[in-house]
Amino acid sequence: MCAEMQNSSSNNGVIGYQQLRGRWTTLLNRLNDDPKVALVMNSRLGQYLSRHPSLALTALVFGAMAALPTGLFLSFALVTMTMSVVGFVFFEVFLLFVGGVTLLSVLSGIGFFSVLVSGIIYASYITIINPLYRNYPHLIKGPIQGKESESEPSEQKEMQ
């Protein structure tokens, strides 16, 4: 019984191999009949690779194995360039935002400082000028002088 199984499995292996070889041969014949492949195979490079199949296999394996890393590198380069452009734009927007906020803060501080200084100067003016006018009335000119002239006749009336 074991011998029958071994014979049937070896027969299946031979039949499977023959079918695989037949499919492979059909595929290669169809590929060789393609006009683009025929054009390449008729060139000097194609004839050289036909005479040196090991070099052709090496070139094919190298091309197949180099395709993935090259594609990954190009994808990485494209993504990196895109991100650097987008990052540059976002960084510029961020810098403009920070500059705008800083300018707003500085201008607000200058405005507050201007109001504070003008308040101090006005308070100093009132504090210094009022005692001066009271002690030195001859320095006064304008509407305040009119008030004093009104008070002078009443004083003159009292004296008379």
Structural overview:
- The chain is an all-alpha fold.
- 92% of the residues lie in helices and 0% in strands.
- The protein contains 5 helices and no strands.
- The protein has helices spanning 2-32, 35-42, 44-51, 53-135, 143-159.
- It starts with a helix and ends with a helix.
Features:
single chain; about 160 residues; mainly alpha; 5 helices; about 90% helix; about 0% strand; rod-shaped
First-residue to last-residue Cα separation: 161 Å
Name the overall outline: rod-shaped
Q: In which range does the helix fraction lie?
A: over 70%
The overall pLDDT average reads: 83
What about the largest sheet?
none
Number of helices: 5
> Strand tally, please?
0
H/E order of the elements? Answer: HHHHH
**Fraction of residues in β-strands:** under 5%
Radius of gyration over C-alpha positions, nearest whole angstrom: 52 Å
The low-confidence parts are none
Class by alpha and beta content: mainly alpha
How do you describe this structure in short?
With 160 residues, the chain is mainly alpha-helical. Helix content is 92%, strand content 0%. The chain contains five helices and no strands.
